[in-house]
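Entry type: protein chain
Record version: 2
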Amino acid sequence: TFQSTLTDYSANWVVNGLAGKFVNPDTPNQYLQFFIVSNDANTIKVWSDVESIAGDGDTYHIFDYHLSSDSNCIDRGDPDFNPDANMTDIDGERRVVDGDANGTEIVDMGADEYYRSPADFNSDGIVNFFDYALFANFWQTTSDVYDLIDDNNYIDYNDLDRFCEDWLWQRAWAKAFPFSYGQGMGKSMGLGMREGLGIAEEILPSASAKKPQPQLTKADVVELIKWLEELWLTDAEVRKMISEDEWLKFIESVIQSIKEQR
């Protein structure tokens, strides 16, 4: 796909603040708008050969067609609309999702289909160490905000598993290579597999001893513990948000919580 770079030396944009929006060169008799992939302070990168349309000194307009969280267009489309399996919104995501989180999927009005990760607690468009710190601070408490699994109890390892699923989630128009805790973690710097399995054996008794809960398996628990340890060891921003003592207490609490619920 062809990529063009447009420059406005008088601009002072926030880096990637325009990502996902559209630029329309103010050129006579042309009405095309071009998707903005990224930007820095005074340049915009777009998909398409804009340079063949826009000339030096031409004016331009920037438009944003994404729905805000309080938009009246969310889930206000045709409730009987059944899109083709390959149909997507302007970001290439599913055409119909439950944008207002009421349990019913209805298409949104417009070209964008609104979705926000429930793990994005601070609503900044990405699930990262800020959300992790908030979540950890509410561990084993009751909270309508941080209880990701609606099971009418306190925040526990099932909520943690759901949080990890959305780790590094970003709004579609701003992300590059999204992945969850089960993908792209690289070499583990945390527990060795033998140690991890030992802890999992201790945490998860056999099915004959206690009725197993279907949400997490032994392998899931091993991955969660490894991922949590690797996250703190490898991410300097996480260490700024959570001290070593706080982090160790959190991990110990996770393990203890799992023991108590088995």
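Comment: DSSP finds six helices and five strands in the chain.
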